[in-house]
Design goal:
Blueprint lengths: L8 H14 L3 H8 L3 H9 L6 H10 L4 H14 L12 H24 L10 H27 L3 H15 L9 H18 L3 H16 L8 H17 L3 H15 L1 H18 L2 H12 L8 H17 L3 H18 L2 H17 L3 H17 L3 H17 L3 H10 L11 H15 L5 H14 L10
Helix pairs in contact: 1-3, 1-4, 1-5, 1-6, 2-3, 2-4, 5-6, 6-7, 7-8, 7-9, 8-9, 9-10, 9-11, 10-11, 11-12, 11-13, 12-13, 13-14, 14-15, 15-16, 15-17, 16-17, 17-18, 18-19, 19-20, 19-22, 20-21, 21-22
Length: 465
């Protein structure tokens, strides 16, 4: 029997894997192994970790070789790693769902690889078996691609791994037929997306080119309009990262024309983000308001919260703080109901920005100081730098140069942080040096704030002093 691993969470995910591989319910596995169903549930929820003897007993009950369980444990360990993604803070329940989805995905990979042996059959039913296998493989690949996209913002390495895992699955499909080639192309678009998020734009460009060659060489018929639309909108994200904004908008329009109403909400949100990156905040506001009409407030509260937050942010960028104020109040109510602490901190940040824009300086200073402390405690260095500069603007407008010097000194840990790219660091050094020499102005600080907001999603952008 192998030794206990350092991080045993994957043993609980192995229980999910065993059950999913057999397409069993928890009660089925419990009955086969002679174990209480509640025990299976506790293993899968991570409340208890199964011992190696118990895991071996469960594998035997599921008629799965224990050696196979040992082989998949490293893959399960990757799925057990959670992370944050921008506005969406880590949610333990969501982490557990993603980990379970990963374990189920691994079971489908193993199942698909085993199904690959059926290709050598020469029975009259072989065509039906092959068709069922192809459908299963495509479904699994699409699921892995969706998981890859969800993982991208938090862990670009994991996003690429998931997409490449999908490529491995396509290898179980027979031949180089009309189904396999476009499917590989579809997956390469998600490889490109992971590389884009990792800021490896040349590799992302190469991957998206490969996707287009495989998918669109013979038109979109074999791929289907929705999948073709997806490739175009992922390519648009890459063009936006490359600051080829007009091309990005054109691609999004093409994606919308192909996908129709089914993709409209996602495309509108991407267009709004593109406008924001262009500094076209008014157009971003109009697009977000159009997208808001498509979202059901009752069934998608988190999406509504994110959309309202982004709408308020763009209104602030556009200097329309009085319009942002009621939106921020509604966003606070939603964020509080969702119980997401990090989102609440960001809403507080937005409240501080609105107060500053409406001339309530003392209120803004108090709120932004509190938010800066929260970001510093959480080592969210880029956000801490932004709030620091916003505080500096308020102090400079009141002639408080001593406070600005203090802020510049307190920013020292930001220069050692991992999450701040070189262009942003150069801008922050400029602020620090100018503050220490008492040459910093409110106008320069405002320009630095505007730059940092745009450079947050564009590490290639440089500040023009």
């Amino acid at each position: 029997m192998p030794r206990e691993p350092e991080a045993p969470r994957e043993l609980g995910l192995a229980v999910v894997f065993l059950r999913a591989l057999r397409r069993w319910k928890q009660s089925d596995l419990a009955a086969a192994a002679g174990i209480d169903k509640g025990q299976i549930s506790r293993f899968e929820m991570g409340i208890r970790i199964p011992s190696w003897p118990i895991l071996a007993r469960l594998a035997a009950a599921a008629r799965v070789p224990f050696s196979l369980v040992e082989q998949v444990l490293p893959m399960l360990r990757r799925f057990g790693t959670a992370g944050e993604d921008g506005l969406q803070a880590a949610d333990p329940a969501n982490e557990e769902r993603q980990a379970k989805a990963g374990a189920i995905a691994v079971s489908r990979v193993v199942e698909a690889e085993a199904a690959g042996r059926l290709a050598s059959l020469s029975t009259p039913t072989n065509a039906l078996v092959s068709k069922a296998r192809d459908d299963r493989i495509r479904t699994l690949c699409e699921r892995l691609c969706a998981e890859s996209e969800r993982a991208a913002a938090a862990d670009s390495t994991r996003a690429v791994q998931l997409a490449k895992l999908a490529l491995r699955v396509t290898a179980t499909a027979p031949g180089e037929g009309a189904n396999r080639v476009p499917l590989e192309g579809y997956i390469w678009a998600f490889v490109a997306n992971g590389r884009r998020v990792a800021n490896d734009l040349p590799a992302a460009d190469e991957a998206i080119g490969r996707a287009e060659k495989l998918c669109f060489g013979g038109g979109t018929a074999a791929l289907g309009p929705l999948a073709a639309s997806r490739i175009l909108d992922l390519k648009a994200s890459l063009r936006r990262a490359q600051r080829r904004f007009e091309e990005a908008l054109r691609l999004l329009d093409e994606a919308l024309a192909l996908g129709g109403d089914e993709v409209r909400e996602r495309i509108l949100l991407k267009k709004a983000f593109t406008f924001e990156q262009m500094g076209e905040y008014g157009r971003a506001v109009e697009t977000l308001r159009e997208a808001a009409l498509l979202i059901d407030d009752s069934s998608e509260p988190h999406q509504v919260c994110v959309l309202r937050f982004n709408l308020a942010v763009n209104l602030c960028h556009a200097g329309r703080h009085s319009e942002a104020a009621p939106l921020v109040a509604k966003t606070r109510e939603l964020a509080a109901a969702l119980g997401n602490e990090q989102e609440l901190i960001r809403v507080c940040w937005l409240e501080g920005r609105v107060a500053a824009g409406l001339g309530r300086d003392e209120e803004a200073l108090a709120v932004l100081e509190e938010v800066r402390a929260e970001f510093a405690d959480r080592e969210m260095s880029y956000d801490a730098a932004l709030v620091s500069l916003e505080l500096a603007v308020l102090h400079l407008e009141r002639g408080r140069t001593a406070e600005v010097k203090s802020i510049a000194h307190e920013m020292a840990p930001i220069f050692e942080a991992q999450g701040v790219h070189e262009g942003a660091l150069a801008a922050l050094r400029l602020f620090r040096d100018a503050a220490e020499q008492e040459r910093i102005t409110a106008e320069l600080a405002r320009r630095l704030v505007a730059y940092l907001y745009r450079a947050q999603h564009d590490p290639q952008l440089r500040f023009e002093a």
